[in-house]
What we know:
Helix content is 80%, strand content 0%. The chain is mostly helical and 127 residues long.
Amino acid sequence: MSTRIVHWLYLFAGGIGGGVVLAGALGLLGSWLGQESATGWGDLVGVALGLVLGAPLGIIVGIGVVAQWLGYRQTLRWIIPGVVISAGVLFLLAEPLHFNLTPALLWTVLIGGPALITALLVAAFAK
């Protein structure tokens, strides 16, 4: 197997791992911070906000750490735009393409999609 393909798989796994871990951590933190709200919806809003912010940040951190480990330099110029643009497009397409039928499908697409696209960008263009 080509080293580019192996590097892409490592980058993809790092993005998935980072996205899941940071989304989960920020989701729990948001729930904890919002549990004492007056309306009773603060914990739910905190979880949603934590997940929406944590997944892209986790993908950026995960792919960045793996890219540095693999010896890629100056990868943030590919990672940040790749995650932001792909996550934004997938958020906008979630309703028309019915990604939001189940939470599992939605978060698989919203974490896996940007990680896949960004890992391809870094493996193809970063040096």
